[in-house]
Structure prediction request, 311 residues.
Amino acid sequence: MYVCRFIDGEAVPMDETAIRDVLGPVTVGGMPASGLPESWDLEAEDGGDSEVYGDSEWLTFTRFSTGAILDRVAELARRTGAVILLLDCPAILPNEADRKHLPEPLRVDAIVVPPAALTGQAIAQTIAPRPETRRRPVLPHFPYHPNPVATGSVTASDEACACCRQERGWVYTGPVYAADAPDTGICPYCIAFGTADARYDASFTDTIDGDVPQHVITAVLKRTPGFLAWQSPTWLTHCGDGAAFLGHAGTRELKAFPDAVDDLRRRCAEWGWPPDQVEDFLGSLDKNGQPTAYLFRCRACGAHLAYADFT
Prediction:
C-alpha cells in the first residue's frame, strides 16, 4: 500500500509534520528529532503492525494489519490530502478535485471517499471485496446515510433478502424495530423503497432528536439504514432537517471535527457533569469500544454534530 500526493501527475512532498503527528505515536522506538527514518516499524494500539519505507514524497506500507493501522493511514490521507494506492484496487481519493492531478492511468478507476468517511474501515472495504468475481449492484441513494458500507451498516452478501426474497448483493446489518420483522437479512433496497416498512411496519432507528417535518421523520426512521449503538440509536437533526450520519468515532477521529466536539461538550454539560468530568469523558471516547461517539453532518449548513453513549 502506498500513500502519496500528486500535483499535475507528479508526486510531491506531503506535510512532514502531519506524517510525524499521525505515525509518530505508533512508531516503534519513536521518531528521530527531525526528519523521517528511511524505514521504520509501526505498532498500533490494537496490536496491529506494519513496516514503512520512503519519505515525505512517497510512503510504502508493507505487511500491514487492518484495524488501527488502516485508521492511521486514513488519518494521514485526510491530513495531507494524499492518495491511497492499493495493489489491484482503485486509488482512494479524499476529494474529487484531486482526480485531475493523478497520473492518467489512475484517474478513471479512482474512487472518492470524502474525508468524513475516510476511515480504516473504508480502506478495508475497498480491499476486501477484490477477490470476489461478481460485481455488486449500485446501492440506493440514502441522503441521510451517504455511505452505509463505510459505516458498517451495509455489507456485501450473497444471501437472499429476508423481505423481498431476492439476492441483492448487499444486506443491512443495523437494528430493526418491528414486532414481526426478521432481526437480520433485510436488503438495503427494501429499506430505501419502503418494502420493509410496508410489510413489517419496520423502523431502522429508534428515535429522532429534534423538531422536523413528518416526511423527514419517515425518511430517517423508515427509509434509511440505521446504525448500531450501545444504547438505542438516536438520529440527530439540524436546520430543521435530519443530519447525515457519517459513522462511529472516538477521540482521535473527532480531532478533525472540533465543531462536533463542541456539540458533544454541550450535550455532556446538559447531563449536569462538571467540566473536568466532561473533558475526561471526551478524552475516553473510543470508535471501536465504549463510550462511543456518533458523528453527523448538517445537510444544510455543514455543521458537524455528535452524541455519545455507553452501556
Q: What stands out?
A: The chain has a mean pLDDT of 92.
